[in-house]
Amino acid sequence: MTEVPGMWLPTWGLVTTRLLELRKRRGLMIAVAVLILALPVLVLGLRLIFHAVDPKTYGPAGSPGIFGGIVNTMAELDFIAAAALGTAAGTTDLTDGMFRHLVVTGRSRLALYFARIPAGLAILLPALALAFSAICLVTSYAGVPQPTSISVGGVPVPANLDQSGLGTWQREHSRQAANAFGPEQSMGSDYDQYVSAELSGENPAVNEMVKIGLWLTLEVGVAFTVGLGLGTLLGQRTVSTILMIALVIIITPILADHVIPYFIDGQRLDVGIALDQLRPAGLASGARDAGGPRVLFGGRGVLQIPPMPTWGMISVVVGWVVGWTGIGAWRMATRDA
Amino acid sequence: MNDENAGAAIARAPRRPGDGSPAVETHGLTKRFGANVAVNGVELRVPRGSAFGYLGPNGAGKTTLIRTLLGLTRASGGTMSLLGVPVPAGRARALAKVGAIVDEPGFHGHLTGRENLRILAAARGGDATARIMPSLELVGLAERADDKVAAYSMGMRQRLGVAACMLGDPDLLILDEPMNGLDPAGMHEMRATIRGLVDEGRTVVLSSHLLDEVERTCDTVAIVDQGRVIRQGPIHELIRGPDGEAGATVRVDCAEPNAAARIIAQAAVAAGTAITDEGLTVTLPSGAARGTVAEINRLLVAGGVRVYGLQEERTSLEDWFLSVTSRLGERS
Question: How many CA atoms lie within 13 A of B308 on its CB side?
Fold first, then answer.
């Protein structure tokens, strides 16, 4: 196909050179690597060493609690890493004076913008995959053995029961079931409670790990595209990065933890809240709070405010990605060089 | 060997003059920033295959005009074309054959010169990647190609900017102050490079405040002042003026000025003579060649006048520039 410089679609060469420009930023790459890789490598590495040296004092390196704790913390750090890379990608040509050279080539400004998305993700996703794979491997192969029973309200209940299996067990062990689930039993809510307890005590299954990996990928992708759009809009890397960090560590927690009367729908427009609600069930044990169960990727929300429906969460996430990509592309296309 | 080392030729046989359209043409081109009119109804016509100087005092709107031509900022009014292609409508097609440096050339300091050009070559597409090394060689940066740009001097960055211009094998180069930061040897090299590019049939538009450099490098100039092009044309014609006024005088240091004046008047080789306390001053006719000075000397010697010295004094581009721009008003 003949290459047309005016086409908005980025070429392979454009993407690879954008990748080159980003990955050669040593300071930024170190920061991204530290934020994404350091936590799992350090925590799991030390636990593996301690367990190998003194297995009586130190338990197995992996456990459901460790898994949830690391991944939940990683989610925050990865968001910041992706946002920082996005804002850098959105501002670097402008601050270095390269933007003018690029525009003068006649290449579509939209192509120049869109080339940054795969280039940024090509850095983030392998690092994320590496970190998450390490966590999954340690949890699966150097973790605690899967329990044969789980504790519900302090009562041991056999593990790996499906809903009908739990019902059978409740009928056969009515006294223990009353202690575990209360005197008024409802199969739906009892099973949710059972699943919750099971998830908090079991290593996540492979399919659950895949869901968690996809959720982390989504979070990183959202953070990068929003950071890229914001950076391109403002043209200032530091301000953009500070705003993104403020979103994830200040604004989202405040909005998630406090119900503002008559503004709940507004609170739900925060992408951090939507992503929080999409958090898979395997991470619920490490989340701040276990709110009412919500099924999506088998997960549930962790918010104090009433959760939004699935289509609402997806709409907010898609809206942020499309909206900020559109804003960034518009600014790129109209900016004086 | 990868593409960028393969080395597509840059210097080549003279080009065809294209479809006869000017390399750059504008009609009523205007750019406003709020109430400030930076480019005011500019009518510009740059002939193909020429070195065209674009001159003006600081703040006259030189860089803004270039930025508007290149689509770096939107025009507020008027029409323009590059290489016969109307812009902004055919911007991508036109810029494919245009190379430009605007203001101080900026590059990614953490990348090498070669890597910066790789990025720009990827943006240009086509076989631009194959021209990376020839471009670096053309500007004398081949040996420093793998050094980080952060370690480059200002002059080296300027040269890298010219190398970036050459990636598209351009028919038109627009260079904004390309001599900035260059030492005398670098300026000499840059001048030779520009002349070489013009000799290949390319058009070079050179914006500069270094009038001497423009006079040495360019054939044609436009003078811009307060956003307007106030004069344009070949340098020697502009200096001579519209009324054909002589452009040069010769001061004759001799023993008998009156006799010398008579001899010169009889031979009709001068437009006029004047005797002052400093001696005899001969005004050369319009368009006189340098041989006229030698002819005056021969006539005086043949007429028995002892000649101690002849000094030609021509109006320089700088004198003329100051006389036609608002800078003269500021100085007086």
Answer: 7
